[in-house]
Write a structure and sequence with these properties.
This protein is an alpha+beta fold. The chain contains three helices and three strands, in the order E-E-H-H-H-E. Helix content is about 50%, strand content about 15%.
């Protein structure tokens, strides 16, 4: 794996993002840019939900996936409307890097 993005949430609900770059060639950077640009697209989201659904089902967690899917719909709507309800200081990022080294 030459480049990766990993999103996580801890027990306290803090969201983090980690980036791994093993190669900075033009091809890798361009591919990584395409990956990152694709994340908010509908097609990417649908494909990711399908993969997540299969993972939940593999672990016999169908009900938990339903809760997850409902949460995605609700949170997406709230974020679009700017009503997330999470109190953050001005300039405090929603996603914090866990390791920048």
């Amino acid at each position: 794996m030459l480049a990766s993005i990993s999103y996580s949430v801890d027990a306290a609900g803090h969201i983090a993002i980690d980036v791994g770059m093993e190669d900075y060639s033009e091809e890798t950077v361009d591919g990584f840019a395409l990956l990152f640009a694709s994340i908010p697209t509908d097609d990417f989201q649908v494909q990711a939900m399908s993969i997540l659904h299969a993972a939940f089902l593999r672990d016999s967690k169908g009900e938990e996936f339903e809760r997850f899917a409902r949460g995605v719909i609700i949170k997406s709507s709230q974020l679009k409307e700017g009503e997330e309800g999470q109190v953050r200081a001005e300039g405090d990022p929603l996603i914090k890097p866990t390791d920048l080294t």
